[in-house]
Every structure is written in structure tokens, then in C-alpha cells.
Amino acid sequence: MELRGKQKRFLRSQAHHIQPIFQIGKNGLNEAVIVQINEALEKRELIKVNLLQNTDEVAEEVAHVLEAKINCEIVQIIGRVLVLYKASSKEKYQKISKEVQAI
After folding, report:
1. Which residue ranges does the record assign to the CRM domain (predicted)?
2. In this predicted model, what pLDDT tens digit does every residue of 27-62 receive, in sequence order?
3. Phi, psi at residue 17, to the nearest 5°?
4. Model pTM score
5. 5, 18, 51, 76: which is deepest, by most CB within 10 A?
């Protein structure tokens, strides 16, 4: 599901106040990190991922890998911070996705 402009704008405003909960460092983006990010998205729907200074990864490449592997949406990339969104499959966690669908 491709996000529309208004939906992305809403998600960016929601993400503004949250802190990055994942940091990708010198080990790069590995399977364990991808699994953890997917689990966090299932519970929170909207998260930030921070790429540390000591990583060789490029934010855009990490975003495309995550988009392909866990089927999430890239809301925004600012420097080394990614904002990711994925609607939860469990109804009890579907807080943000219901608001997004209403837009």
C-alpha cells in the first residue's frame, strides 16, 4: 500500500516527537536487526532508525532493503535517521494505522 502525501505528512508529524529506537552501527544491517525492526513495527507501527557515524551503510540503501524485506513504508529520511511505518496485523496495536486510513 503506497502512502499518499497527506498520510505521509500526518506520519511525519506523529514521528516528530519519538526517539530512534534502533541504531545501526559498525556491524551494519544484519538479519537480527531486520527481525527486531519488524517486531517493533508490529507493536508500534511507526519507528525511527538511526544510522551511527561509524557505519558504512547509506540511509537510502538501508531504507530500500528494509522496504523490500519487511514490506514497510519509508515515511522520511533525514540525514542518517529513517522514519518507518507499517500497519500492524494485530488489532490491539492498530492505533496509528486507523488514523492513516481515515485520511
Report:
1. 1-97
2. 989 999 999 999 999 999 999 999 999 989 899 999
3. -90, -10
4. 0.90
5. 51
